[in-house]
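Example 3.2
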Amino acid sequence: MSKGIWETSTLTKWFVKNKRDFPWRRHINPYFVWISEVMLQQTRANVVIPYFLRWISLFPSVIALAKANREKVIKAWEGLGYYSRARNLHLGAKQIEKDFNGKIPSSREDLLKIKGIGPYTSEAILAFGFNKRASPVDGNVLRVLSRLFLVEKDISKASVKNEIKKIEDKFLGNEKSWVVAEALIELGAMVCKKVPQCDICPMNNCCRALKENKHLNLPISTKNTSYIKLKRVVFILEHQDCFLMTKRKTGQIMADLYEMPYWDLKGNFSKLKLEKYLHQEFGFTVKFYRKYRSIKQSYTRYILDLFPYHFVVKDKKVIKDWQWTEKNIMKQLPFSSGHRKIIENFILRREMK
């Protein structure tokens, strides 16, 4: 390896000059790092900013988060998806309050004991929250280092990730290693992207993949996510300005979120067929009110087309595991993203007209 590979001053100078201004970067705060790193999983940074600011205003410390109502925590996360992240943050905060006197621990061993904190997040907290020598390896780092060091192996394999982690550990050096670690992540996010911008890269003089014209072929990854497409009718069931909904239980998909009744479609349907389904499922006699435009929703491995149908229920009944909720209360509850869009676009909007 050329000597230039180990010279990180160019990278850190580029980072100091070009790094993006994020609220979690303005203070050395382990709690801010923890929250932001969890939010940034599966979510773009520009999307995370307003969520992070709102979260910190609601739960400014580990103790505040630990003592918060779980539904309030889920509501604050509404729209970010992968809600297990929010549940784990809440459980992790309670664990920190109980086992670590409300202070995020500064050792790798203790961090890994906390619910929801895995290898990457623990390394990120150590590096960016405590300014310790640590090697956080995310997708950006895998991409950057596989090109810099010409790692022509499948980065989706654990053994290759460990190999790149060892490369990063050597690459960091001993002086302000946490700055180098964050610079690598920033380089992958801003320059060394899926299609790399090698002409403006501060490391282009020592990139082995670029020198061998393999930069567009790396990293190698055989990981492939297959998606399941579903069509679903969502029933807006109204009785005297109240709407039928349920709260998903722990262990279910969308746990702790509220949803309206729905029916997965496996063929054609008509209003009459929907009315018969509602009578069989709930015992309701209904009157069709309106059909709304379809809504897109995606989560984990699913892509959904939601078709909202609004019915007026003539005879209100008490149904186990379901509740009738007033419209003004609906604003305060956490919903899955698709159902939230339906509520905001077709139910609450009527108030604004």
